[in-house]
Structure formats: structure tokens, C-alpha cells
Amino acid sequence: MSRPSRSAQRGAALITAMLIAALAAVMVSGMFWSQWSAISREQTAREQTQARWILRGAIDWARLILREDARNSAVDYLGEPWSVPLAEARLSTFLAARGQDSAALPDAWLEGRIIDAQSRFNLRDLAPAGSVDPQALRVLQRLCAALQLPAGVATDIANGVAASTAPVAQPSVANAPLPLQQLQDLARLGTAVAQALPRLAPAVTLLPQPTAVNANTAAPLVLAALLGVDADTAQALVQARKRAYFRNLGDIALLLPQGTQVNPQLVSVATGYFDAIARVRIGHLEYAERALIQRAGLFTQVVRIERVPPWLAAPAQAAAGAN
Fold first, then answer.
1. Minimal CA–CA distance to 61: which of 207, 274, 286?
2. pTM to 2 decimals?
3. CA–CA separation, 143 vs 225, rounded Å?
4. For the segment 153-169, what is each residue's pLDDT rounded down to a tens digit?
5. What is the largest CA-CA distance in the chain?
6. Regarding the domain with residue range 58-118+271-319, which homologous superfamily does it belong to in the CATH classification?
């Protein structure tokens, strides 16, 4: 058997060296990629933590604004400071205005707004004591009719809310329906309700307890359903409150057709629940949260906080309920 030539041996050695170099390059690239991924994950986690802390501060700021508003007036309307949205601004400008050093802070941008959670019809009013309230049901039926939703949707929602709030005997607690805590929970009530929710959501809410709708902030669609008036009358109410906000229910009644009743259980000019929505941007990271704030006199508390899509915090969305 003949031995390989010297040139063949050199060729084999060269190929082996190239394979080893390629393998080493792959291993080094893998190590660099792993290290870069770890650094990227750590940076993202750090930015998310910073964003959450900034948003907590923004929510506390919203609570302070609402507390100061309660000192000045018992009526809530869209001309008050709390209703003015905060356009995106560099966080360091706030601290610089207060004479504080911001050099150690990340380059963060903040925007947000406070909206009246009682500007929409509260589905909790459908069954305040575990049984369906006929007047509240009629309001929801009118809303569904205006939105061209199936006639049975209002009844299905009312029955679902009643079942979730009705007192349950202790032995059958395990069979009790799940509580309805947020609007998306209504999707459990059936296919028709789930399909109707996207169109119904801008006009309704689900707060922890029954509340009246604030006529100073409600949209015309909600006012029409609430008061049982036509769209033109509801639009006239909106134009009237732009000139002078409603100080009491009497101001509303003066603008309604003769004989129209204003139910104080469903209509108000003050608010006890607000949504504070804020977005923070740090580099390429965008993070937004919505907090439901309850206000009773000068006392404010955060009922719940949830992460939301960043576009919800855009000030452009704030005008949706005012037109």
C-alpha cells in the first residue's frame, strides 16, 4: 500500500486547520452572542424597573392633582386642571424646574392623562343589590340600540352582573359564578356579549361599586341613553356645558324636554373614580400603565393597576369622551 504524497499530507493538514479555525470562530461567536444577550436582557430588565418606578411617581402625582381638585370644588368638569393631558416631555425638565439634579437619571420621556371613569355608564348599576334594576337596564338597552347591537346583549349583561353580585348561600359557594371585576370579564357571559364588547367598551365601564354618570364629562351617546333623549338634545347638552358646566342636576333639567326625569341614582355632576394612564419611554423601551383611582373627599387610593398598550396614554385619546 503506497504512502500518501507529501503534498496530499499538506492539503489534509490545511483542511484540518481550516476546520479547527472555523469551529473556534463559531464557538467565539456563540460566546459573544450569549454575552450580548445577557447584557441586553439585563439592560431591558433595568429599564423596565426604572419605567415602573417612574410610572408609580406619575400615579402619585395624579392622586395629588385629584386631591387638590377636591379642595377647590365638589363638581367635576372638563375645564379643570386634572383633565388637561400631559404631552410627552423629558423627565429631567420636571426636576430641573424644581431645582433638583437629574444627571443620574436615565433619558426618560413621560406622557399621560387623567380621564373621568364615571363619564361612561357603569354596568355595576344594573344590579346594585343582586337583582336587575329596570331603569338601569333600559339605559343599557338604549345604548345597545344606538350602537346597533343585538337586542339580547343588554339582558345577558344585566343577568350576568346580577348573578355575580347576588348573595350566595355558604354550602353552594363552590358553584357560585366567578366575580366580574373588569370589563373584559364580561366575555364569559356568552358569544354575543363577547362580540359586542369592542363596540360597547367606549360607552361603558365596570367599577367596583355602583356609581352615577357624570353629565359634565359623558359623551353625547351616553347622555342620550342615560336621559332617554334624542341625539340632538344630547349634543345640545354637550354644547351647553362647554359654555357653563352643570353645577347640579337642576341645571341639566332646565335643558331637557318637559317631563324628562333626571334620576339621581344614575346621573351626577361629580366623580369618585378616575383612570390615570401614563407612558414612559426610555431609549427604545415604551411602558404604559393604567391606574384606577378612587377619591372620597380628600382621600385617594389606587384600586388597581394594569399594564396597557402605550398608545392608550396618547393625549389625542383624551378628547374621545368630550365630543
1. 274
2. 0.80
3. 6
4. 999 999 999 998 876 55
5. 118
6. GSPII I/J protein-like (3.30.1300.30)
